[in-house]
Write a structure and sequence with these properties.
Layout lengths: L7 H10 L5 H12 L5 H13 L6 H14 L2 H14 L5 H14 L2 H9 L6 H13 L5 H11 L6 H14 L2 H13 L6 H13 L3 H9 L6 H20 L8 H11 L5 H13 L3 H9 L6 H4 L7 H9 L13 H8 L2 H13 L6 H13 L3 H10 L6 H15 L2 H14 L4 H14 L2 H13 L8 E6 L2 E6 L8 H13 L11
Antiparallel strand pairs: 1-2
Helix pairs in contact: 1-2, 2-3, 2-4, 3-4, 4-5, 4-6, 5-6, 6-7, 6-8, 7-8, 8-9, 8-10, 10-11, 10-12, 12-13, 12-14, 13-14, 14-15, 14-16, 16-17, 17-19, 19-20, 20-21, 20-22, 21-22, 22-23, 22-24, 23-24, 24-25, 24-26, 25-26, 26-27
GO molecular function: RNA binding
Protein name: Pentatricopeptide repeat-containing protein
InterPro entries: E_motif, PPR_At4g14850-like_plant, PPR_rpt, TPR-like_helical_dom_sf
Length: about 500
Protein backbone atom coordinates (compact mmCIF):
# COMPACT_ATOMS: atom_id res chain seq x y z
CA UNK A 1 0.00 0.00 0.00
CA UNK A 2 2.73 2.48 1.01
CA UNK A 3 4.82 1.60 -2.04
CA UNK A 4 1.90 2.14 -4.44
CA UNK A 5 1.32 5.59 -2.94
CA UNK A 6 5.06 6.38 -3.16
CA UNK A 7 5.32 6.69 0.64
CA UNK A 8 8.76 5.11 0.73
CA UNK A 9 9.59 6.35 4.23
CA UNK A 10 6.53 4.64 5.71
CA UNK A 11 7.17 1.50 3.67
CA UNK A 12 10.80 1.40 4.88
CA UNK A 13 9.71 1.90 8.51
CA UNK A 14 7.22 -0.95 8.25
CA UNK A 15 9.82 -3.15 6.54
CA UNK A 16 12.39 -2.53 9.28
CA UNK A 17 9.85 -3.48 12.00
CA UNK A 18 9.00 -6.80 10.36
CA UNK A 19 10.06 -9.65 12.69
CA UNK A 20 10.88 -11.87 9.74
CA UNK A 21 11.67 -10.81 6.20
CA UNK A 22 11.83 -13.01 3.11
CA UNK A 23 12.88 -12.50 -0.51
CA UNK A 24 9.33 -11.43 -1.46
CA UNK A 25 9.26 -8.53 1.03
CA UNK A 26 12.75 -7.51 -0.11
CA UNK A 27 11.69 -7.62 -3.76
CA UNK A 28 8.70 -5.35 -3.10
CA UNK A 29 10.89 -2.63 -1.60
CA UNK A 30 13.82 -3.10 -4.01
CA UNK A 31 11.42 -2.86 -6.96
CA UNK A 32 9.92 0.35 -5.57
CA UNK A 33 13.29 2.04 -5.04
CA UNK A 34 14.57 0.93 -8.46
CA UNK A 35 11.72 2.83 -10.17
CA UNK A 36 12.67 6.08 -8.43
CA UNK A 37 15.61 7.89 -10.09
CA UNK A 38 16.49 9.59 -6.80
CA UNK A 39 16.39 6.44 -4.64
CA UNK A 40 17.82 3.80 -7.00
CA UNK A 41 21.02 3.54 -4.92
CA UNK A 42 18.93 2.45 -1.89
CA UNK A 43 17.91 -0.67 -3.83
CA UNK A 44 21.52 -1.89 -3.83
CA UNK A 45 21.78 -1.29 -0.07
CA UNK A 46 18.74 -3.51 0.43
CA UNK A 47 20.30 -6.13 -1.83
CA UNK A 48 23.38 -6.24 0.43
CA UNK A 49 21.09 -6.70 3.47
CA UNK A 50 19.27 -9.51 1.68
CA UNK A 51 22.52 -11.41 1.11
CA UNK A 52 23.76 -10.69 4.64
CA UNK A 53 20.59 -12.28 6.03
CA UNK A 54 21.38 -15.42 4.06
CA UNK A 55 18.53 -15.04 1.59
CA UNK A 56 18.92 -15.97 -2.09
CA UNK A 57 17.82 -13.43 -4.73
CA UNK A 58 15.59 -14.58 -7.56
CA UNK A 59 14.91 -13.39 -11.10
CA UNK A 60 12.63 -10.57 -9.94
CA UNK A 61 15.39 -9.26 -7.66
CA UNK A 62 17.83 -9.16 -10.58
CA UNK A 63 15.26 -7.50 -12.83
CA UNK A 64 14.69 -4.68 -10.32
CA UNK A 65 18.42 -4.18 -9.70
CA UNK A 66 19.14 -4.01 -13.43
CA UNK A 67 16.44 -1.35 -13.72
CA UNK A 68 18.06 0.57 -10.85
CA UNK A 69 21.48 0.24 -12.52
CA UNK A 70 20.07 1.70 -15.74
CA UNK A 71 18.67 4.66 -13.78
CA UNK A 72 22.02 5.29 -12.09
CA UNK A 73 23.87 4.88 -15.43
CA UNK A 74 26.38 2.70 -13.59
CA UNK A 75 27.64 0.31 -16.27
CA UNK A 76 30.21 -1.36 -13.97
CA UNK A 77 27.50 -2.30 -11.50
CA UNK A 78 25.28 -3.41 -14.37
CA UNK A 79 28.00 -5.67 -15.78
CA UNK A 80 28.51 -7.16 -12.30
CA UNK A 81 24.80 -7.92 -12.11
CA UNK A 82 24.96 -9.47 -15.57
CA UNK A 83 27.68 -11.82 -14.35
CA UNK A 84 25.66 -12.70 -11.28
CA UNK A 85 22.64 -13.50 -13.47
CA UNK A 86 24.79 -15.89 -15.50
CA UNK A 87 26.15 -17.48 -12.33
CA UNK A 88 22.70 -18.00 -10.81
CA UNK A 89 21.10 -19.21 -14.05
CA UNK A 90 18.64 -16.34 -14.51
CA UNK A 91 19.38 -15.76 -18.21
CA UNK A 92 16.55 -18.07 -19.21
CA UNK A 93 14.15 -15.62 -17.58
CA UNK A 94 12.64 -13.36 -20.29
CA UNK A 95 12.17 -10.47 -17.85
CA UNK A 96 15.82 -10.65 -16.78
CA UNK A 97 16.97 -10.73 -20.41
CA UNK A 98 14.77 -7.75 -21.26
CA UNK A 99 16.10 -5.83 -18.25
CA UNK A 100 19.69 -6.55 -19.34
CA UNK A 101 18.81 -5.29 -22.80
CA UNK A 102 17.28 -2.10 -21.37
CA UNK A 103 20.22 -1.52 -19.03
CA UNK A 104 22.78 -1.64 -21.86
CA UNK A 105 20.58 0.46 -24.17
CA UNK A 106 20.08 3.20 -21.57
CA UNK A 107 23.82 3.28 -20.93
CA UNK A 108 24.55 3.74 -24.66
CA UNK A 109 26.25 0.36 -25.14
CA UNK A 110 24.32 -0.64 -28.25
CA UNK A 111 26.60 -3.57 -29.13
CA UNK A 112 26.11 -5.28 -25.75
CA UNK A 113 22.39 -4.59 -26.00
CA UNK A 114 22.36 -6.21 -29.43
CA UNK A 115 24.23 -9.29 -28.13
CA UNK A 116 21.80 -9.59 -25.22
CA UNK A 117 18.90 -9.32 -27.64
CA UNK A 118 20.29 -11.91 -30.07
CA UNK A 119 20.87 -14.38 -27.23
CA UNK A 120 17.16 -14.34 -26.37
CA UNK A 121 15.27 -17.39 -27.55
CA UNK A 122 11.75 -16.01 -27.10
CA UNK A 123 11.60 -12.35 -28.09
CA UNK A 124 8.29 -10.77 -27.14
CA UNK A 125 7.04 -7.27 -28.04
CA UNK A 126 8.64 -5.80 -24.90
CA UNK A 127 12.06 -7.09 -25.96
CA UNK A 128 11.63 -5.72 -29.49
CA UNK A 129 10.50 -2.37 -28.10
CA UNK A 130 13.53 -2.26 -25.83
CA UNK A 131 16.07 -2.86 -28.62
CA UNK A 132 14.32 -0.45 -31.02
CA UNK A 133 14.18 2.18 -28.27
CA UNK A 134 17.89 1.70 -27.60
CA UNK A 135 18.74 2.20 -31.25
CA UNK A 136 16.60 5.35 -31.51
CA UNK A 137 18.00 6.86 -28.29
CA UNK A 138 21.59 6.21 -29.37
CA UNK A 139 21.25 7.64 -32.87
CA UNK A 140 21.08 4.33 -34.76
CA UNK A 141 18.13 5.68 -36.70
CA UNK A 142 18.60 3.81 -39.97
CA UNK A 143 18.59 0.45 -38.17
CA UNK A 144 15.38 1.16 -36.25
CA UNK A 145 12.93 0.75 -39.19
CA UNK A 146 14.87 -2.36 -40.26
CA UNK A 147 14.37 -3.88 -36.80
CA UNK A 148 10.69 -3.03 -37.04
CA UNK A 149 10.36 -4.90 -40.35
CA UNK A 150 12.25 -7.87 -38.88
CA UNK A 151 9.83 -7.84 -35.95
CA UNK A 152 6.92 -8.07 -38.39
CA UNK A 153 8.58 -10.93 -40.27
CA UNK A 154 8.98 -12.76 -36.95
CA UNK A 155 5.18 -12.40 -36.59
CA UNK A 156 5.46 -10.41 -33.35
CA UNK A 157 2.57 -7.96 -33.05
CA UNK A 158 3.80 -4.37 -32.58
CA UNK A 159 2.37 -2.32 -29.74
CA UNK A 160 1.41 1.35 -29.82
CA UNK A 161 4.78 2.07 -28.22
CA UNK A 162 6.52 0.24 -31.08
CA UNK A 163 4.78 2.43 -33.65
CA UNK A 164 5.67 5.56 -31.67
CA UNK A 165 9.35 4.56 -31.58
CA UNK A 166 9.54 3.90 -35.33
CA UNK A 167 7.67 7.13 -36.12
CA UNK A 168 10.14 8.99 -33.91
CA UNK A 169 13.01 7.52 -35.94
CA UNK A 170 11.26 8.47 -39.21
CA UNK A 171 10.77 12.03 -37.91
CA UNK A 172 14.47 12.39 -37.11
CA UNK A 173 15.45 10.85 -40.44
CA UNK A 174 12.77 12.87 -42.23
CA UNK A 175 11.77 9.54 -43.74
CA UNK A 176 8.41 10.57 -45.09
CA UNK A 177 7.69 7.39 -47.07
CA UNK A 178 8.57 5.11 -44.16
CA UNK A 179 6.45 7.17 -41.78
CA UNK A 180 3.46 6.98 -44.11
CA UNK A 181 3.81 3.19 -44.33
CA UNK A 182 3.80 2.92 -40.53
CA UNK A 183 0.69 5.13 -40.38
CA UNK A 184 -0.97 2.98 -43.03
CA UNK A 185 -0.24 -0.19 -41.06
CA UNK A 186 -1.67 1.34 -37.89
CA UNK A 187 -4.91 2.08 -39.75
CA UNK A 188 -4.93 -1.27 -41.55
CA UNK A 189 -4.59 -3.31 -38.34
CA UNK A 190 -7.16 -1.18 -36.55
CA UNK A 191 -4.75 -0.29 -33.76
CA UNK A 192 -6.23 2.08 -31.21
CA UNK A 193 -4.42 5.39 -31.65
CA UNK A 194 -3.83 6.88 -28.22
CA UNK A 195 -2.45 10.35 -27.53
CA UNK A 196 1.29 9.41 -27.51
CA UNK A 197 0.87 7.68 -30.87
CA UNK A 198 -1.07 10.66 -32.26
CA UNK A 199 1.74 12.95 -31.11
CA UNK A 200 4.30 10.68 -32.80
CA UNK A 201 2.33 10.83 -36.07
CA UNK A 202 2.00 14.60 -35.77
CA UNK A 203 5.74 15.01 -35.14
CA UNK A 204 6.64 12.79 -38.10
CA UNK A 205 4.44 14.69 -40.58
CA UNK A 206 5.63 18.08 -39.29
CA UNK A 207 9.30 17.05 -39.43
CA UNK A 208 8.87 15.79 -43.00
CA UNK A 209 7.17 19.00 -44.14
CA UNK A 210 3.69 17.56 -44.79
CA UNK A 211 1.87 20.17 -42.73
CA UNK A 212 -1.41 19.48 -44.54
CA UNK A 213 -1.60 15.89 -43.23
CA UNK A 214 -0.17 17.03 -39.89
CA UNK A 215 -3.05 19.44 -39.51
CA UNK A 216 -5.57 16.67 -40.29
CA UNK A 217 -3.95 14.47 -37.63
CA UNK A 218 -4.09 17.38 -35.20
CA UNK A 219 -7.82 17.90 -35.81
CA UNK A 220 -8.49 14.27 -34.82
CA UNK A 221 -6.84 14.68 -31.42
CA UNK A 222 -9.68 15.15 -28.93
CA UNK A 223 -7.63 16.19 -25.89
CA UNK A 224 -4.25 17.58 -27.02
CA UNK A 225 -1.62 17.88 -24.32
CA UNK A 226 1.38 20.20 -23.99
CA UNK A 227 3.48 17.96 -26.26
CA UNK A 228 0.83 18.19 -28.98
CA UNK A 229 0.67 21.96 -28.84
CA UNK A 230 4.46 22.29 -28.85
CA UNK A 231 4.75 20.17 -31.99
CA UNK A 232 2.02 21.87 -34.02
CA UNK A 233 2.79 25.42 -32.89
CA UNK A 234 6.55 25.15 -33.36
CA UNK A 235 6.47 24.02 -36.99
CA UNK A 236 3.61 26.25 -38.12
CA UNK A 237 4.69 29.32 -36.17
CA UNK A 238 8.33 29.27 -37.24
CA UNK A 239 7.44 28.63 -40.89
CA UNK A 240 4.72 31.30 -40.96
CA UNK A 241 6.82 33.99 -39.26
CA UNK A 242 9.90 33.26 -41.40
CA UNK A 243 7.75 33.40 -44.55
CA UNK A 244 6.41 36.75 -43.38
CA UNK A 245 9.93 38.22 -43.35
CA UNK A 246 10.56 37.31 -47.00
CA UNK A 247 8.75 40.41 -48.22
CA UNK A 248 10.85 42.73 -46.05
CA UNK A 249 13.92 44.12 -47.88
CA UNK A 250 16.28 43.05 -45.13
CA UNK A 251 17.28 39.86 -43.30
CA UNK A 252 17.33 41.71 -39.98
CA UNK A 253 14.10 39.99 -38.95
CA UNK A 254 14.74 36.62 -40.58
CA UNK A 255 18.23 36.00 -39.22
CA UNK A 256 17.23 36.10 -35.51
CA UNK A 257 14.44 33.64 -36.34
CA UNK A 258 16.97 31.41 -38.10
CA UNK A 259 19.17 31.55 -34.99
CA UNK A 260 16.19 30.55 -32.86
CA UNK A 261 15.46 27.53 -35.06
CA UNK A 262 19.10 26.46 -34.66
CA UNK A 263 18.79 26.77 -30.88
CA UNK A 264 15.56 24.76 -30.70
CA UNK A 265 16.60 22.19 -33.32
CA UNK A 266 13.83 23.10 -35.77
CA UNK A 267 16.35 24.07 -38.46
CA UNK A 268 16.73 20.33 -39.15
CA UNK A 269 13.14 20.21 -40.39
CA UNK A 270 12.93 20.17 -44.19
CA UNK A 271 9.81 22.33 -44.01
CA UNK A 272 11.58 24.99 -41.92
CA UNK A 273 14.72 24.63 -44.06
CA UNK A 274 12.85 25.28 -47.30
CA UNK A 275 11.23 28.35 -45.72
CA UNK A 276 14.65 29.67 -44.65
CA UNK A 277 16.06 29.11 -48.15
CA UNK A 278 13.16 31.04 -49.65
CA UNK A 279 13.65 33.88 -47.15
CA UNK A 280 17.38 34.24 -47.87
CA UNK A 281 16.97 33.98 -51.65
CA UNK A 282 14.27 36.66 -51.65
CA UNK A 283 16.75 38.89 -49.83
CA UNK A 284 19.60 38.09 -52.27
CA UNK A 285 21.64 36.28 -49.60
CA UNK A 286 22.55 33.34 -51.81
CA UNK A 287 25.50 32.18 -49.71
CA UNK A 288 23.29 31.60 -46.66
CA UNK A 289 20.64 29.83 -48.75
CA UNK A 290 23.28 27.54 -50.25
CA UNK A 291 24.67 26.70 -46.80
CA UNK A 292 21.23 25.69 -45.57
CA UNK A 293 20.63 23.54 -48.63
CA UNK A 294 24.00 21.81 -48.28
CA UNK A 295 23.28 21.05 -44.61
CA UNK A 296 20.51 18.65 -45.59
CA UNK A 297 21.97 15.21 -46.23
CA UNK A 298 18.66 13.96 -47.59
CA UNK A 299 17.47 16.47 -50.19
CA UNK A 300 13.69 16.33 -49.89
CA UNK A 301 11.34 17.24 -52.72
CA UNK A 302 10.03 20.13 -50.63
CA UNK A 303 13.43 21.81 -50.86
CA UNK A 304 13.68 21.33 -54.61
CA UNK A 305 10.13 22.39 -55.35
CA UNK A 306 10.08 25.38 -53.00
CA UNK A 307 8.25 28.15 -54.82
CA UNK A 308 10.98 30.78 -54.66
CA UNK A 309 12.94 32.53 -57.40
CA UNK A 310 16.28 30.76 -57.03
CA UNK A 311 19.07 32.25 -59.12
CA UNK A 312 21.88 30.45 -60.95
CA UNK A 313 24.33 30.61 -58.04
CA UNK A 314 21.94 29.03 -55.56
CA UNK A 315 20.85 26.31 -57.92
CA UNK A 316 24.33 25.44 -59.15
CA UNK A 317 25.37 25.19 -55.50
CA UNK A 318 22.35 23.01 -54.85
CA UNK A 319 23.35 20.66 -57.65
CA UNK A 320 26.96 20.47 -56.51
CA UNK A 321 25.72 19.56 -53.03
CA UNK A 322 24.23 16.37 -54.43
CA UNK A 323 26.70 13.53 -54.81
CA UNK A 324 24.60 11.81 -57.43
CA UNK A 325 21.91 13.59 -59.43
CA UNK A 326 20.22 10.33 -60.37
CA UNK A 327 19.38 9.67 -56.72
CA UNK A 328 17.19 12.76 -56.49
CA UNK A 329 13.55 12.01 -55.84
CA UNK A 330 11.22 11.85 -58.82
CA UNK A 331 9.18 14.97 -59.43
CA UNK A 332 11.75 17.35 -57.97
CA UNK A 333 12.29 20.65 -59.73
CA UNK A 334 15.63 19.51 -61.10
CA UNK A 335 14.79 21.16 -64.45
CA UNK A 336 14.94 24.60 -62.88
CA UNK A 337 18.41 23.90 -61.50
CA UNK A 338 19.67 22.45 -64.79
CA UNK A 339 18.20 25.39 -66.70
CA UNK A 340 20.10 27.99 -64.72
CA UNK A 341 23.32 25.98 -64.79
CA UNK A 342 23.14 25.43 -68.55
CA UNK A 343 23.17 21.66 -68.20
CA UNK A 344 21.30 20.81 -71.38
CA UNK A 345 22.03 17.10 -71.44
CA UNK A 346 21.18 16.61 -67.77
CA UNK A 347 17.97 18.57 -68.19
CA UNK A 348 16.93 16.46 -71.16
CA UNK A 349 17.80 13.30 -69.24
CA UNK A 350 15.51 14.20 -66.35
CA UNK A 351 12.78 15.36 -68.72
CA UNK A 352 12.79 12.00 -70.50
CA UNK A 353 13.15 10.17 -67.19
CA UNK A 354 9.93 11.74 -65.94
CA UNK A 355 8.01 10.77 -69.06
CA UNK A 356 9.38 7.21 -69.08
CA UNK A 357 8.26 6.74 -65.49
CA UNK A 358 4.76 8.09 -66.06
CA UNK A 359 5.34 11.42 -64.33
CA UNK A 360 3.42 14.31 -65.88
CA UNK A 361 5.56 17.47 -66.30
CA UNK A 362 4.15 20.52 -64.61
CA UNK A 363 3.98 24.15 -65.66
CA UNK A 364 7.38 25.01 -64.22
CA UNK A 365 8.99 21.99 -65.88
CA UNK A 366 7.82 23.28 -69.28
CA UNK A 367 8.88 26.87 -68.61
CA UNK A 368 12.36 25.77 -67.48
CA UNK A 369 12.85 23.57 -70.54
CA UNK A 370 11.73 26.34 -72.89
CA UNK A 371 14.02 28.84 -71.15
CA UNK A 372 16.96 26.44 -71.41
CA UNK A 373 16.43 25.54 -75.06
CA UNK A 374 15.99 29.15 -76.17
CA UNK A 375 19.10 30.31 -74.30
CA UNK A 376 21.14 27.71 -76.13
CA UNK A 377 19.71 28.69 -79.50
CA UNK A 378 17.47 25.62 -79.85
CA UNK A 379 14.50 27.75 -80.88
CA UNK A 380 12.71 25.17 -83.05
CA UNK A 381 12.71 22.69 -80.17
CA UNK A 382 11.55 25.42 -77.79
CA UNK A 383 8.72 26.45 -80.14
CA UNK A 384 7.65 22.81 -80.48
CA UNK A 385 7.50 22.52 -76.69
CA UNK A 386 5.35 25.69 -76.47
CA UNK A 387 2.88 24.10 -78.90
CA UNK A 388 2.88 20.80 -76.96
CA UNK A 389 2.46 22.44 -73.55
CA UNK A 390 -1.04 22.00 -72.09
CA UNK A 391 -0.57 25.12 -69.94
CA UNK A 392 -2.25 27.81 -72.05
CA UNK A 393 -1.76 30.48 -69.38
CA UNK A 394 2.02 30.18 -69.82
CA UNK A 395 1.90 30.84 -73.59
CA UNK A 396 2.92 34.50 -73.41
CA UNK A 397 5.65 33.99 -70.82
CA UNK A 398 7.11 31.10 -72.84
CA UNK A 399 7.45 33.31 -75.92
CA UNK A 400 8.84 36.06 -73.71
CA UNK A 401 11.62 33.68 -72.63
CA UNK A 402 12.51 33.11 -76.29
CA UNK A 403 12.38 36.85 -76.98
CA UNK A 404 14.72 37.56 -74.06
CA UNK A 405 17.23 34.97 -75.29
CA UNK A 406 17.40 36.75 -78.67
CA UNK A 407 18.94 39.85 -77.05
CA UNK A 408 22.16 37.99 -76.28
CA UNK A 409 22.17 35.83 -79.41
CA UNK A 410 21.26 38.68 -81.76
CA UNK A 411 18.78 36.53 -83.70
CA UNK A 412 16.44 39.23 -84.96
CA UNK A 413 14.17 36.89 -86.96
CA UNK A 414 13.32 34.69 -84.00
CA UNK A 415 12.93 37.79 -81.83
CA UNK A 416 10.40 39.33 -84.23
CA UNK A 417 8.46 36.03 -84.37
CA UNK A 418 8.38 35.79 -80.57
CA UNK A 419 7.27 39.41 -80.19
CA UNK A 420 4.50 38.93 -82.76
CA UNK A 421 3.15 35.91 -80.88
CA UNK A 422 3.04 37.94 -77.68
CA UNK A 423 1.50 41.04 -79.28
CA UNK A 424 -1.14 38.91 -81.03
CA UNK A 425 -2.41 38.02 -77.57
CA UNK A 426 -2.01 41.51 -76.12
CA UNK A 427 -1.22 44.36 -78.52
CA UNK A 428 -0.44 46.69 -75.61
CA UNK A 429 2.17 44.45 -74.00
CA UNK A 430 4.83 47.10 -73.41
CA UNK A 431 7.25 44.49 -72.05
CA UNK A 432 7.39 42.70 -75.40
CA UNK A 433 7.97 45.99 -77.25
CA UNK A 434 10.80 46.97 -74.90
CA UNK A 435 12.46 43.56 -75.32
CA UNK A 436 12.11 43.79 -79.11
CA UNK A 437 13.82 47.19 -79.06
CA UNK A 438 16.70 45.61 -77.12
CA UNK A 439 16.95 42.87 -79.75
CA UNK A 440 17.19 45.50 -82.51
CA UNK A 441 19.71 47.52 -80.48
CA UNK A 442 21.89 44.45 -79.82
CA UNK A 443 21.95 43.81 -83.58
CA UNK A 444 22.70 47.48 -84.32
CA UNK A 445 19.46 48.04 -86.28
CA UNK A 446 18.75 51.52 -84.93
CA UNK A 447 16.10 52.40 -87.51
CA UNK A 448 13.92 49.57 -86.21
CA UNK A 449 14.59 50.71 -82.65
CA UNK A 450 13.23 54.15 -83.55
CA UNK A 451 10.28 52.63 -85.42
CA UNK A 452 9.33 50.43 -82.48
CA UNK A 453 9.61 53.38 -80.12
CA UNK A 454 7.37 55.41 -82.45
CA UNK A 455 4.73 52.66 -82.45
CA UNK A 456 4.85 52.54 -78.67
CA UNK A 457 4.27 56.30 -78.44
CA UNK A 458 1.41 56.01 -80.89
CA UNK A 459 -0.22 53.41 -78.65
CA UNK A 460 0.58 55.63 -75.63
CA UNK A 461 2.73 52.84 -74.17
CA UNK A 462 5.22 53.93 -71.56
CA UNK A 463 7.82 51.84 -69.85
CA UNK A 464 7.03 51.45 -66.17
CA UNK A 465 9.62 53.52 -64.28
CA UNK A 466 12.12 51.73 -62.07
CA UNK A 467 11.95 52.37 -58.34
CA UNK A 468 14.71 52.72 -55.78
CA UNK A 469 14.44 52.32 -52.03
CA UNK A 470 16.42 52.97 -48.90
CA UNK A 471 15.84 51.66 -45.37
CA UNK A 472 16.38 54.18 -42.55
CA UNK A 473 15.63 53.20 -38.95
CA UNK A 474 13.38 50.31 -39.99
CA UNK A 475 11.38 52.56 -42.37
CA UNK A 476 11.56 51.85 -46.11
CA UNK A 477 11.46 54.94 -48.38
CA UNK A 478 10.63 54.37 -52.08
CA UNK A 479 11.23 56.88 -54.89
CA UNK A 480 11.77 57.10 -58.65
CA UNK A 481 13.89 59.34 -60.87
CA UNK A 482 12.94 63.03 -60.45
CA UNK A 483 10.50 62.19 -57.67
CA UNK A 484 9.66 65.18 -55.42
CA UNK A 485 6.65 63.72 -53.61
CA UNK A 486 8.45 62.62 -50.45
CA UNK A 487 7.28 64.35 -47.28
CA UNK A 488 10.86 65.34 -46.37
CA UNK A 489 11.76 66.50 -49.86
CA UNK A 490 12.65 69.97 -48.53
CA UNK A 491 15.30 68.48 -46.24
CA UNK A 492 16.56 65.92 -48.75
CA UNK A 493 17.33 68.36 -51.60
CA UNK A 494 19.74 70.66 -49.67
CA UNK A 495 21.58 67.61 -48.29
CA UNK A 496 21.85 66.15 -51.79
CA UNK A 497 23.21 69.46 -53.13
CA UNK A 498 25.79 69.50 -50.34
CA UNK A 499 26.93 66.00 -51.26
CA UNK A 500 27.13 66.86 -54.95
CA UNK A 501 29.19 69.95 -54.08
CA UNK A 502 31.86 67.73 -52.55
CA UNK A 503 31.82 65.32 -55.49
CA UNK A 504 35.14 65.04 -57.37
CA UNK A 505 34.63 63.73 -60.91
CA UNK A 506 36.98 61.06 -62.26
CA UNK A 507 38.74 62.22 -65.43
CA UNK A 508 40.56 60.12 -67.99
CA UNK A 509 43.97 60.72 -66.46
CA UNK A 510 46.30 58.43 -64.64
CA UNK A 511 45.88 58.95 -60.92
CA UNK A 512 49.24 59.22 -59.17
Amino acid sequence: MYVLSWSFADAQLLFDKMPQRNVVSYNVLISAYSRSPHDAHVAFGLFDRLENEGLSPNGLTSTSLLQASAGLENLVMGCSLHGQCVKMGFLNNVRVQTSLLGMYSNRGDVECAKRAFCSMIDKDAIAWNSIISGYVKNGKLMESPELFHTMLREKVNPTRFTYSLVLNACAKLEGYDGGKLVHAQVLLLGTYIDLPLQNALLDMYCSCGDTHTAYKVFLRIENPDLVTWNIIIDEYTFAAVISGTSGVPSCDYGKPLHAQTEKTGHSKSVYIGSTLISMYVNNDDYISSQKIFSSFLHKDAVLWTEDCNLDSYTLSSALSACADLVTLRQGEMIHLACSHCGLVDKCRFFWNYMKENGLKPGSKHYSCMISLLSRFGLWEEAEKMIIESPFVDDYVESWRAILSSCIRSGNVGVGICAAENILNVNAEDNGASVLLMKVYAAAGIWDDVSETRRKMRKLMVEKEPGLSWIEVRNDVHVFCSGDQSHGQNGDVRPELSKLMGNFIPIVDEEVT
